[in-house]
Amino acid sequence: MGDGADRRVVKKEIIEAAHDLYAREELAHYRFVYASQLHVRAAGAEKADIIDTLVLGKSVRVIQRNKAWTEVEYLNDVSGELRTGWVSSRYLHKFVR
Question: Which segments of the chain have a pLDDT < 70?
Fold first, then answer.
């Protein structure tokens, strides 16, 4: 990914697009990936198996948090199915302006 200025621009564009489409209340339980790639794991631990990878801007629904890990639900872009898994919370961002 580019420098910090590019990341801020991308973040702002993602947030603005979400607010154009959804009410704030609808976005309360959703986050978006704020990393170029984010591994989805079978459990909330760094040594857990990687079961998928999410990309910058992908939106996910928060199911629960466990310290530094968040269980999320997301739509797999390839299969079209809803999947769940655990991701590092530090790479998720709220849809806040």
Answer: 1-4
pTM of the model: 0.86
Cβ(50)–Cβ(40) below 8 Å: yes
Running DSSP on this structure, what letter comes out for residue 39?
A: E
- Give residues with Cβ within 8 angstroms of 1, minimum separation 6: 7, 35, 36, 56
Backbone angles phi, psi at 49, to 5 degrees: -60, 140
Cα dihedral 96, 45, 53, 19, rounded to 10, equals: -10
Cα–Cα distances in Å, from 33 out to 20, 75, 81?
18, 13, 18
* Beta pairing partners, 69: 66, 88
